[in-house]
Amino acid sequence: MSRLNHSWRFFRAGGVCQVRLDSGADLLALDQLDQTLWMALACPVEDLAFDRRTLALLDADGDGRIRAPDVIAAVRWVARRLKHPDDLLKHTDFVPLDALDDSTPEGGTLRAAALKVLASLGKPDATGICLSDVEDLERILAGTTLNGDGVIVPETAADEATRSLIEEILSCMGTVKDRSGRAGVDEALVERFFAECAAWEAWIREGESRTAELWPLGEETDAAVAAWSAVRAKVDDYFQRCRLVAFDPQAHAQLNPGPASYQALGGADLAEWPDPVRTLPLARVAPGRPLPLREGLNPAWMGPIRELERRVVRPLLGERTELTEEDWVSVCERLGPAAAWRAARPVTSVEKLGIRRVREILAGRGREELRRLIALDRAEEPAVQAIRDLEKLLRFHRDLHLFCQNFVNFRDFYDRGEPAIFQFGTLYLDQRACSLCLRVEDPARHAGLASAAGAFLAYCECVRKATGEKMYIVAAFTDGDSDHLAVGRNGVFYDRQGRDWDATIVRLVEHPISLREAFWRPYKKLARFVEEQVAQRAAATEKNVPLPLPVGGEPAAAAKKTGLGRADLGLVAALGLTVGASGTAFGTLAGYITGFVKLPFWKVCVALAALMMVVSGPYVVLAWLKLRKRNLGPLLDANGWALNTRARINVPFGTSLTQVGKVPVSAVIGAGDPFAERRPWAPWVAALVLVVCFLYSLFNSHGWIHRWTGGRWGQPPPTVQGRAAAKGGSPAAGGAASAAQGGPGPIQPTGAGAHASGSGTTGVSAGQP
How far apart are CA 662 and CA 285, in angstroms? Predict the structure, then answer.
């Protein structure tokens, strides 16, 4: 059947029609399914209880999100490589070789790659391949030297000279890791090595071609250049100062250090010459004055100047006690080119090979051979990519259909078998096991949107002290009550790997959990309010205990001592008026209560039950409306999902998401609790008495007790009472008179005559017993 004419089947769960994915044909036709019928359109790759490598393969563009086109592309990719798409429903990471579709180029390539991998693993006769065979690419490629990554190792070389060259490059330039896990070199490293060899050889060649200019003192030139460079700037500064003083004698005082220059040095430690001394001129400045080399020098520069005199001045100019400006210019001209050449020395690690070996390398054909080996290695890239595609196929063979059942539809979530991929584990707290637990990054940010889910949410900080790991989860409580759920309560969270975490509630989003809780909520709130008021009044009474009245003395004095005054007389009067008004109100209320008490007991019970319904009814109705709207959507949206529907969580389904602790039916409970409290019998007796009184009152008001006991107990039916009232008497009075005369009691009319007489009676009941 063409995919364009595919016949879809749906199932209803969560109040939403969801598409069934029961065959490979259903998966192949996903590109024809209207995306408005998908449960989700996008989801993040983080915070999911799913294979991370599979999620990375599904996220083709690597943006951290999986969208509907990514899923469709994955299905198409698999379809071109498997003969039977129904194999995706097996959820195994083993694929028989015969299941690979070698009629297509893609399938044929994967089959060849599978045979190559099995042969390298010593299993050439295997009939299929599994994920563990291809998961460790380094193990597969451990025995190969050409593996498509453009990195060659010494073992790649066909001759000893090339092998030695690769090892020299590794020692000088560092290494690049090969796919097999071994150290090797790539094209960039090879080119950099030869570039540094060429630069080093060119610098050495320049020095050899200009020996007289660059080595004026032979082997001592390096030391001479170092001594000259150390004082060059300072000597130039001295002669510049001398020129300036010659230009204008008034500059003499400013360019030579004065008394103020030494004031700061009075309290300084001069064991090592500080910077203020080193910044002073080399010697006293005067017009045309030579630089003294032994006497009159700045003591901070005495050592470097003597090194200059020993290594530079004496070899180039002979014995001197001072250095004229012309002599200094001559020295600079002799050592300047040598210093410039040494400053241009390339910084490279190939120097340790020696200039002779470097020239051998540059003159040989090693560079071309390495380029050829790198090209051969890159030619193997398609074969290695085929192994990677084989791993991708095996992962999709195992996980793709499972992912679709948590993305296209939410079958795993609603069938209560395997948990959905967004369910991160189970929270055990307050004798409940909450299976709808999601991992979150920021509870405050998540709660802002998740509160619209209409579920009672507990955000918990989960910590594993042994490893220092920490994370946050949100758990939905969908059964039981919220009486004992508060910030700071501790529980235990088990993740999907079975690891246990210490969980502490850090934030609550309160919504109704059940209709039963909503029914009793007003009475619990009233009881809590009364407790709080009693506690507040008791605390206030302790703080404001009145002082006792003094014994004896005048009333005024007593009032003065106890703090009573005229203002208290007004207070007493006001209290009197208040008590009077309250008495009137209580009188009216007492009238209603008296009328209420005169009702038959069963009517009193019905009235109280109706009153309870009036009080609890709004809470129950409001809870029912909220529970109807309770859904999964905001919870997942706050986690980065793009949910396409509300995904309702109705009351029966919510009950399955939170398991309340119950003792198993088959369990045997011992009877020997030494600390057991005595079971109160009064409530049970009171309940039994209440039921008996209710039934007696109900039956008596209809005359059934009177009829069942032959008139010995209870009041007669209302029809008999009506006839007695019409005759001016009462059945009770007549019965009493007859009893006094020894005659029978009142006779209850029966038969047709009784009905006839009853139908003509218009009286009402004379009263209640």
Answer: 103
- Cα–Cα distance measured from residue 605 to residue 717, given in angstroms and rounded to the nearest whole number: 21
Q: Which neighbouring-strand residues pair with 477? A: 456
Max distance between CA atoms of the chain, in angstroms, equals 170
Residues present in the chain in total: 769
Distance of CA 417 to the CA centre of its chain: 25
First to last CA, the chain: 84
Q: Give the separation between CA 76 and CA 752, rounded to whole angstroms.
A: 88
Predicted model pTM? 0.66
Give 728's pLDDT tier (boundaries 50, 70, 90). Answer: low
Range with the poorest average pLDDT among 94-98, 106-110, 599-603: 599-603
CA-nearest of 696, 749, 699 to 724 is: 749
Domain boundaries, the chain: 3-143+381-413, 154-210+352-378, 216-258+272-348, 687-736
User: What SS3 class is residue 92?
Assistant: coil
The predicted structure's pLDDT at residue 344: 93
What six digits make up the tokens of 261? 């220059």
The 10s digit of each residue's pLDDT in 349-386 is 999 999 999 999 999 999 999 999 999 999 989 988 99
Coil, helix or strand at residue 685: helix
Which of 179, 175, 167, 96 is closest to 142 using CA atoms?
179
For strand 658-660 and strand 432-434, is the pairing parallel, antiparallel, or unpaired?
Answer: antiparallel
Residue 739 has pLDDT above 90, yes or no: no
Q: Is the pLDDT of residue 743 over 50?
A: no
Which residue type occupies 768?
A: Q
The predicted-structure confidence for 35-65, as pLDDT tens digits, reads as follows 999 999 999 999 899 999 999 999 989 999 9
- 363-397 exposure pattern, b = at least 16 Cβ within 10 A, e = fewer: eeebbebbeebbeebbebeebbebbebbbbbbbbb
Q: Where are the alpha helices (DSSP H) in 405-514?
A: 411-414, 443-450
Cα–Cα dist 27/399, whole Å? 13
Question: How far is it, in rounded angstroms, from Cα 150 to Cα 191?
Answer: 13
